[in-house]
Amino acid sequence: MDYKTILVHVNDCRTLDARIAFAAQFAIGHGAHLVGIVQTGILRFLYGTPPDGYLGDLTSFFADLREQANRLAAHFDALARQAGLSSLEHRVGDEEPGYALACQAMYADLVIVGQSDPDDQTTAHAGIPEYVALHAPCPVLVLPFARQCSPVFERALVAWNASPESARAVQQALPLLSRAKSVEVVTFEADGSDRESPGGDQVGLLLARHGIKVELRNERPNGDIADALLACADGRRADLLVMGCYGHTRLREILLGGVSRTILRSMTIPTLMAH
Questions:
Q1: Closest residue by Cα to residue 98 from 123, 61, 117
Q2: Global pTM?
Q3: What is the rounded distance in angstroms from the CA atom of residue 123 to the CA atom of residue 98?
Q4: What ranges in 185-273 are assigned the alpha helix state H?
Q5: Could you tell me the CA-to-CA distances from 230 to 77, 105, 169, 257 in Å, in that order?
Q6: Residues in the chain with pLDDT < 50?
Q7: Which of 118, 143, 168 is the last residue of a domain?
Q8: DSSP-H helix ranges across 83-199
Q9: Same domain, yes or no: 21 and 137
Q10: How many angstroms separate the CA atoms of 158 and 176, rounded?
Q11: For residue 107, what are the domain limits?
Q12: How many domains, the chain?
């Protein structure tokens, strides 16, 4: 089983070239068709607040946005072909990027996006990884902004909490887990409970029946589970994290923070999420 149709977000940010190179090599490795998604965001201004400095006719502003989008699309084509990929296309639209990616994910196996970079105004407040992970029907692979990553994952860490979200993440990560040299499933005991998180052994058996050798690990974090998960990934030298996204209600995540939001903010390795 492989991912055969992959979407990658193409935007004007400092990590774009690394993201395209990763996506192209990843697609080659899976024999996949790669689609670069470029959006102008024009509909935001048609139905919302006009951009700063523009009053009245926005024709020239919209033309500039479309010209920039077309440049990005051509740049995607050139870099993907330079990487050796032959099956590719780009799609240029006027939607918000997160919405467009989530909608077009209905016809894809995987979406690749970049982590929000606080030092890059293009992505700092966009919230694209969160939106796409919540609304896309296929898994979302989020790439960290702080480092370039190999598209070949050797050591995968699966965060398991027996939720539907973590179950979907495991199912949808099978093409990656089956290729990894080592896979570790980690569960966490929370709130001072003496009971282990349920189902770790069962998900281990599920993966074993796919021919995947799995190690099981149970952690007792002294503090925040997200920090413990990040520390575990670092300590095990994992190069891929697999986890469910937003196991609690979105309102609770906003009010209390949550593991998903902390991981998306602080991750340093590629993270596959499913909701």
A1: 123
A2: 0.92
A3: 11
A4: 200-208, 225-235, 250-256, 259-266
A5: 35, 28, 17, 16
A6: 194, 254-257
A7: 143
A8: 97-104, 128-135, 164-172, 174-177
A9: yes
A10: 11
A11: 5-143
A12: 2
